Amino acid sequence: MAPLTDHCPKPLLSLAGKPLIVHHIEKLVAAGITEIVINHAWLGEKIETALGDGQQFGAKIQYSAEPEGGLETGGGVFQALPLLGQEPFLLVNGDVWTDWDYRQALMQPLGEYLAWLWLVANPEHNAQGDFSLEQQQVAADETTASKRYTFSGISLISPELFADCEPGFFRLATLLRTAMKTAQVGGALLNANWVDVGTPERLQQLETQLKSEK
Prior knowledge:
Blueprint: E1 14-15, E2 18-19, H1 20-30, E3 35-40, H2 44-51, E4 60-65, H3 72-84, E5 89-92, E6 96-98, H4 103-106, E7 115-120, E8 131-134, E9 137-139, E10 148-157, H5 172-180, E11 185-189, E12 194-196, H6 200-213
Parallel strand pairs: 3-4, 7-11
Antiparallel strand pairs: 1-2, 5-10, 6-12, 7-10, 8-9, 8-10
Helix pairs in contact: 3-5
């Protein structure tokens, strides 16, 4: 996202008149999810200054700051577990946008799964997809190309997924792939509009789209 993120963390980039992350916060609060933990690394202090304790949104926001160099998603979430508690939690990437109603996540039982992923049709920039989906079972099988989808960055996670982890840098995808080998990851397609806001061009396209819809 450079040069846009040279002096601004990606979640604070403006989209349709408000920071990208505020779109998520407002939708979470509207769904009844008011206890929010934000994990941050690059320029994270700016996120804390902008959002504060969450009172302005009707939420309670806590922060988990990664050390210099970052911890990747897996390591970052593991560090934040003391703030997240013992129950399954909703994990949302800060660099995606969706008009999905987060209340649907509250209606999804995790059951015996360690994680539940919402997947989307493969965008041009990830044409090969990430995982396969067969009858709500998510797998890393790369032989079923016609059934492969892209991970939306929205998931329901059990803290037990991190049971054997140690502090440090590691990817969430590594944990998920390990759990998939024992059929412990479920999933479904995300029935909503979704954009991975990963480049200035995609951010501008989404900005134009949202303005035209207004």
